[in-house]
Amino acid sequence: MLKTTFTLLTSRSTSKWVIIFWFVLLHVRVAALQADENPRIAFEIRNLFEGHAGDATWRIGEKGLFHYRQALDFYSAREFQQAWIDQNNRLTCTAYEMRYEITQSKFDGLEPKDYHLAEINLLFEAMERASRTLRGPLMALEMAQLDILLTDGFLELASHIYMGKVDPSHGVYGWEIQRKQPKKEVVEKLASAIEMGAVRKAISSLYPPYPMYGRMRRSMRELYAKEAKMPWQWQQLGIETSVKPLEAHQVVGLVRKRLAFWEGNATDEDTEGSEFYDSALVLRIQEFQSRHGLNPDGVIGRATLKALNKSPKDLIRQASVNMERMRWLPDTLLAEVILVNIANYTMDFIRERDTVLHSNVIVGNAYRKTPIFNAPMSYLVFSPTWTVPPTILRKDILPAIKRDVNYLARKNMRLLTHSGTEVDPRSIDWSKVTADRFPYLVRQDPGPSNSLGKVKFMFPNSYNVYIHDTPSRELFARDDRALSSGCIRIQKPLELARLLLADQPMWSDDRIAAAMNSSKEQVVMLKRKVPVVMLYLTFWTDAKGIPLFREDIYERDEALHKALLKPIPLIPKV
Asked: Which of 67, 116, 160, 487 is catalytic?
């Protein structure tokens, strides 16, 4: 009987059954190995946490854990069972989705390498290679390490998406807006992502709740696509004198090619680079100028060429820092808010995500920057007096008085003691008065020349900054409107007053106009406090999906960009 069986198994006609037999046997052995390894993954996960409790030097590959405590809570709740590897010791679809989300974090202006991507890729490749060669799974310890890296990567990415990577409290960023509190539900989001197999949904739920962020993210994708098509040499364009429509200049041909690159629809004429500045090109230049916050006059000047010289990499950097600023914003500004974008010289009054008023503004100059903060507006003052702040008094008013004692009279200003007694400025020997010892107040009465104009809008704050009218209306026509001493001068004060007092019927248009032109100031309390946010955005995407870029007037983008690139310190967040 044995001889017969042996003959059957070794005969040529049955050789294929022998192969099948050993193949099945091999797979049974691999399955047995996998079954043996599976419980050990949980064992190794638990031992890793127990053996490195609170250890800032715990490394897996080149990276340490950032969220030891949260990761421990997550695994404890599931009795240390692996989350990203199935019962057959294969990577789950959720694991692949997690790795994909890490790679996609660049579209949020973040660095994928910050979320263990290199280590995850190495272990993914090892597991896939083992699966292809039928050599059995990785060691249980390696699979435990991979599982923990994916978990920690989720927690770190989710944290950065929700509240930003960089701490904005550092003075160099000029950010004083109250930051969001860490979201306690991040671990719950992780558990839900594993249970539902929906990493993308979990992470996107942590995005800033403002539609603009999603639009900015789409613009980032487009910028990366442009970077992939970027010429190997990005030529810097320059001119000595501006080029006006219907003129010819060699730079015009280069401008055509540069615009064609950004527009993605080059014509034969663009490719040939015609040097005649025709009317069709004027329209394209004007559109480009508008997108970059320039006066759309169609003149190719230095400011226009400066914007054209920015490469996709430059704009990706600019977009990255502004997406970080969006993540810093509190998520409680949806119902009603007055939003001032300092870098854009604009103010928007927003209700239920609709802009009910848009106005140009003048902001602080480079020496007296408008601070970035938020505070509730509680009242306004019609026909205000202006008590000159100490800084302006020392730097501007006192030198002007010393040059001409009649300066105060011309400006409708009075000199007062701190008890309120008026003093005749001609009775003072100004040569003996210094900025350090100036025992007076200077107050400007209401009137056409009052520096605050006809109304000021108050949101009390430690910076003594507020929104106000101005008699210098011609300044709103300028491209560069960083001209004030820190406060915000608004082009449409009457319209803002109407909106704020719309819930007080006694304040008709006629009464508002009369109060704005009175010789006495009048304080009006608002029935509800309206949040005011002084924001600094040099990039955003509008409701039409158009990416808009602005000059970094306070030179704050570079410091933040460097901070975003800086490696995260190996200190676990407990």
From this structure: 487
SS3 assignment, position 336 = strand
> Phi-psi bin for 562: left (phi > 0), alpha (psi -120 to 50), beta?
alpha
What is the C-alpha radius of gyration for the chain, rounded to an integer number of angstroms? Answer: 33
- Residue bearing tokens 């079954």: 35
In this predicted structure, the answer to whether residue 38 has a pLDDT above a threshold of 70 is no
What pLDDT, in 10s, does the model give residues 333-385? Answer: 778 999 999 999 999 999 988 899 999 999 999 989 999 999 999 999 999 99
| Amino acid present at 13 | S
Rounded Cα gap, residues 371 and 177, in angstroms: 9
Of 206, 205, 193, nearest to 93 by C-alpha is 193
* Distance (Å, whole) CA 73 – CA 67: 10
Q: Is residue 44's pLDDT more than 80?
A: yes
Catalytic site residue from 67, 160, 292, 468: 468
Q: Is the pLDDT of residue 265 over 90?
A: no
- Given a cut of 60, whether residue 7 has pLDDT beyond it is no
At 112, give phi and psi (nearest 5°): -55, -30
CB 166, CB 560: distance < 8 Å = yes
Residues 6+ apart with CB under 8 A from 450: 383, 384, 385, 386, 412, 444, 471
Does 169 have pLDDT greater than 90? no
Q: Which helix (H) or strand (E) holds 509?
A: helix 509-516
Give catalytic status of residue 487 as yes or no: yes
pTM of the model: 0.86
* Cα(303)–Cα(427) distance, integer angstroms: 51
Fold of 330-540: L,D-transpeptidase catalytic domain-like (2.40.440)
Distance CA 315, CA 322 (A): 11
Backbone phi, then psi, for 386, in 5-degree steps?
Answer: -130, 115
Percent above pLDDT 70 for the chain = 89
CA atoms within 13 A on the CB side of 421: 5
Identify whether 93 is a catalytic site residue: no
Q: CB atoms < 10 A from the CB of 523, how many?
A: 10
Contact 456, 384 (CB under 8 A): yes
Q: How far does CA 130 lie from the centroid of its chain?
A: 42
- Of residues 405 and 491, which shows the higher confidence score? 491
CA atoms within 13 A on the CB side of 326: 27
* Average pLDDT score, the chain: 88
Domain boundaries, the chain: 15-216, 231-310, 330-540
With a cut of 70, say whether residue 23 has pLDDT above it.
Answer: no
Give the three-class secondary structure for 571: coil
| Inter-helix orientation angle 250-263/279-291, to 10° | 60
Long-range own/partner contacts, residues 141-147 (CB < 8 A, 24 or more apart): 141/44, 143/37, 143/41, 143/44, 143/82, 143/85, 143/89, 144/41, 144/44, 144/45, 144/48, 144/82, 145/44, 145/48, 145/60, 146/84, 146/85, 146/120, 147/41, 147/45, 147/82, 147/83, 147/84, 147/85
- Class of the CATH-defined domain 231-310: mainly alpha
Query: What's the distance, Cα to Cα, between the start and end of the chain in Å?
Result: 70
Concatenated DSSP letters for 353-380? TEEEEEEEEEEE-SSSPPPB-EEEEEEE
